[in-house]
Write a structure and sequence with these properties.
Layout (H helix, E strand, L loop, with lengths): L1 H7 L12 H8 L9 E3 L19 E3 L19 E3 L19 E3 L8
Parallel strand pairs: 1-2, 2-3, 3-4
């Protein structure tokens, strides 16, 4: 039991609550948000997707293991092909219906009823 807790522990220094341009640029090394094609923000405690919608050329996005409830900021990501939002607190997927290029979606471990 204790081993499992250690595996999922996120150091306080790595936790963030909101996605910001500074966070995105520091994680990817990209200067322009439009240049980001792949983004992995797993298990950081994120609950607010902030400016992630400005990454308009994003193709692959991993937001698993956070505290996300609202996917609305992803609605502008028309080129998004792969999205992993497993283990969050999402209750509906309506906000990503405009992601026309989506080919793979992982929503396991959320609050989706239908």
């Amino acid at each position: 039991f204790y081993l499992l807790l250690l595996l999922f522990y996120i150091p306080e220094t790595e936790r963030v609550s909101k996605v910001t341009a500074v966070l995105l640029k520091s994680r990817t090394g990209e200067f322009d948000l439009e240049s980001i094609l792949f983004l992995k923000l797993r298990g950081l405690g994120i609950y607010d997707l902030g400016c992630i919608g400005d990454c308009i050329n994003l193709e692959r996005l991993d937001l698993s293991g956070n505290n996300i409830t609202n996917l609305a900021p992803l609605s502008s990501l028309r080129l998004l092909q792969i999205l992993n939002v497993s283990a969050n607190r999402i209750s509906n997927l309506e906000d990503i219906s405009s992601c026309d290029s989506l080919q793979s979606l992982n929503v396991a471990g959320n609050l989706i009823s239908r």
